[in-house]
Design a protein that fits this description.
Elements lengths: L1 E4 L4 H7 L5 H14 L4 E8 L5 E8 L9 H5 L38 E11 L2 E10 L5 E4 L3 E3 L4 E7 L7 H18 L6 E4 L2 E2 L6 E11 L2 E10 L9 E5 L5 E6 L10 E7 L10 E2 L10 E2 L3 H4 L2 H35 L10 H20 L9 H15 L4 H11 L4 H41 L7 H11 L9 E4 L5 H13 L18 E7 L4 E9 L5 E2 L1 H16 L8 E9 L1 E2 L1 H9 L8 E5 L2 E7 H11 L1 H7 L3 H4 L6 H8 L10
Parallel strand pairs: 2-9, 13-15, 20-22, 21-23, 22-25
Antiparallel strand pairs: 1-6, 2-3, 3-8, 4-5, 4-8, 5-6, 5-7, 9-10, 11-12, 12-15, 13-14, 16-17, 18-19, 19-20, 24-25
Helix pairs in contact: 6-7, 7-8, 7-10, 9-10, 10-15, 11-18
């Protein structure tokens, strides 16, 4: 039996490895197997009746641990007792991961003892086998038992005794997939694989995109394989891996798209005869800046023009792949901003929707230019930056926004020019859209005139007039949200009302004799910045009907139901009821005269925050013309050219559904 001790005690070793946990430790033992030339590493475990592991073994078919090399395999790590950060340790053939013996001593994180049974080839066809033990409470003492002859093959089995805190095979599988996905994807002259209880570890769930492509430089051809990972891998940055024609990795290098504030995690494997000239690994001397791991010789390569041209093409390819990815991520981030309450409120009114789209477009473009602008923000910071963009885009200070962004993130001159162009384009596209909206509104008004004043179109109240107004209720006010249109009763309208304002979806009961009355149009506008809720109810009558006491009484019944229901009567709520027809009789004229003292045109009745207005169709149309006269004069819209020839009321409605002036009913 052979024993050896080192200068550093058990507590010193534990301190040096304090950043490791059980899963990292198991991964280290798998790395040790691959470092020893294994093609298969098999993790086998048995569980007790409550699901905890009673036994765990890591088995590899590598070269084993030759007894003459035992001290070199286990002891170099112990030359220093400084803490080791597992995230800085290099992995894979480009760095012999187990060089410092790190992995073999981390088992104390989950077991009381580790036992190695290893077989190595002493000479051709001559194998030796022996056993090694280390106890968790005596980490600085290694015990090796006498070796015996064996028939082979080579390999090592590590058995862990006294296991604690391991009971979830899924977490082990997930961790190992994130740890080794890039390495297993790399390939080699032989296939590598990891088994868990004899089942192959599948990392495909981590692959979000994979593409094979070919690069040509002068007379050289390179085969490349691009992989984008669904999530961050454990400790491997996004890299290029350079592989010779024999499938052996010769070098690797970080890509230019690390630490960009996005989730564009990727690996690119490049193979070609060009890399065959790199014959041997080189080991850099251990310095304060080096962890002593093996490196591949990139220094000579990076001075070569062919290699620089290759990197340029690879970088351009990655940027092309990243662009649509960032666009999708930007849209996802915007949804998160809205859902999280970072967006200012916007109504369904088309004007507000264009302002909202303007803001979304700017955030989307800025995110694509540099996602780091939005990285690591809390809700208050998100609200601040979103409102900054909103206010800036709503003013003439768009260029100032670019100056602010240039101070926050580093933009190349090309990126700065692209972002400036995008900001200008975003603004122009929304100006064009706004002009289209205005022209469509004038068209909608002209179509309403035909429905009201041209009997030959055959318009009726419910199917044509009411439907047209449902789609264009901006005639009675901007930024409103349609609550109901000809709903069965007030209870249904109340449910929608409370759902929109307060997010409640429970059924509501109304005890009122007129609760089953139907409102033609019921819309609400909520202005949270001033905590004001404004409501409108519109009752439409066919042009053939002369408005009188009966029609006005119908609207007052609507008001009565509203007054009787607490949910409709908040201190910050106001109500306006509109009765609209082609003409009215002397009774209505008298009501309008009686209300003249309040100084409001069309007002027929007032009670606190509740008002009833009576309007002729001609007055509704004239009001629109007066409100938009300035815009009409400035744009010089040729309205006769905007009009589309329609032969019936049905054709008018069909056209209005496709218009930007039409508000979609939700």
């Amino acid at each position: 039996m052979y024993q050896t001790k080192v200068e550093i005690g058990t507590q010193g070793i534990r301190r040096a490895l304090k950043k490791y946990d059980a899963l990292r430790s198991i991964a280290e033992f798998v790395w040790n197997g691959f470092d020893a030339g294994a093609s298969i590493v098999d993790i086998q475990f048995e569980s007790n009746e409550v699901g905890y592991y009673s036994e765990l073994r890591v088995i590899d078919d590598g070269n084993g641990i030759p007894l003459p090399e035992l001290d070199r395999k286990f002891k170099p790590f112990l030359h220093s007792n400084k803490a080791i950060d597992p995230t800085t340790v290099q992995h894979g053939p480009s760095a012999v991961h187990g060089k410092n013996g790190i992995g073999r001593l981390t088992f104390f994180k989950f077991a009381q003892q580790a036992e190695w049974t290893t077989t190595y080839e002493l000479a051709s066809g001559q194998f030796r086998k022996y056993k090694i033990e280390i106890a968790a409470d005596n980490l600085n003492t290694l015990t090796a038992f006498p070796e015996t002859d064996d028939i082979g093959p080579t390999g090592t089995t590590v058995k862990f005794v006294g296991i604690t805190e391991l009971n979830d095979s899924d977490s082990i599988s997930n961790y190992l997939a994130r740890e080794f996905a890039w390495f297993l994807e790399l390939g080699s002259p032989y296939q590598r694989s990891i088994m868990i209880n004899n089942e192959v570890l599948n990392y495909e769930s981590l692959v979000d995109d994979r593409e094979l492509y070919q690069l040509r430089l002068d007379d050289m051809t390179f085969q490349a394989r691009y992989v984008r990972w669904r999530e961050r891998l454990n400790d491997e940055y996004s890299r290029y891996y350079f592989i010779g024609s024999d499938n052996r990795e010769r070098a690797k290098k970080h890509t230019t798209l690390n630490n960009k504030g996005d989730s564009f995690y990727h690996s690119v494997y490049v193979q070609g005869k060009y890399f065959d000239s790199i014959m041997n690994f080189t080991v850099l001397p251990e310095t304060a800046e080096s962890d002593g791991q093996s490196r591949l010789p990139l220094e000579d390569l990076e001075r070569d023009d062919t290699f620089r041209d290759l990197l340029t093409k690879l970088d351009e390819y990655l940027k092309r792949k990243r662009k649509p990815f960032l666009r999708r991520m930007a849209k996802k981030y915007i949804r998160e901003l809205e859902d999280g309450g970072a967006f200012p409120p916007f109504s369904l009114d088309p004007w507000d929707q264009y302002r909202k789209k303007d803001l979304e477009d700017v955030i989307c473009e800025v995110y694509q230019a540099d996602p780091r602008v939005f990285s690591g923000l809390n809700l208050q910071q998100k609200q601040t930056i979103v409102n900054l963009f909103h206010l800036t885009m709503s003013s003439s200070e768009r260029d100032s926004l670019l100056e602010v962004l240039a101070q926050i993130v580093k933009l190349t001159s090309r990126e700065r020019d692209e972002l400036a162009a995008l900001l200008r384009t975003t603004h122009l596209s929304n100006v064009v859209a706004a002009i289209k909206l205005i022209s469509d509104r004038f068209t909608a008004v002209d179509e309403l005139k035909k429905l009201v004043f041209c009997p030959e179109y055959g318009a009726n109240e419910r199917d044509h007039l009411q439907t047209h107004i449902e789609r264009h209720y901006w005639l009675f006010g901007e930024q409103y949200h349609l609550v109901s249109a000809a709903e069965p009763d007030f209870e249904q309208a109340l449910r929608r009302f409370t759902s929109y304002l307060f997010g409640e979806s429970t059924s509501r009961r109304i005890n009122h004799v007129d609760k089953n009355k139907e409102m033609d149009v019921f819309a609400v506008r909520w202005l949270p910045e001033v905590d004001e809720i404004s409501n409108i109810v519109v009752e439409l009558k066919h042009p053939k009907i002369t408005l009188g006491e009966k029609e006005l009484r119908q609207v007052k019944k609507y008001m009565s139901v509203v007054l009787d229901q607490p949910e409709f009567n908040g201190a910050n709520m106001s109500w306006r009821f509109y009765l609209v027809g082609n003409d009215y009789n002397s009774y209505v004229s008298g009501e309008l005269e009686s209300a003249e003292a309040h100084g409001e045109t069309y007002l027929a009745y007032k009670r606190a925050n509740y008002k009833i207005y009576v309007m002729k169709w001609s007055e509704v149309l004239t009001d629109f013309e007066l409100r938009h006269k300035f815009i009409l004069d400035k744009l010089r819209l040729e309205r006769d050219k905007l009009a589309t020839a329609h032969r019936s009321a049905d054709e008018i409605l069909a056209h209005s559904f496709e218009s930007t002036a039409s508000i979609a009913i939700k």
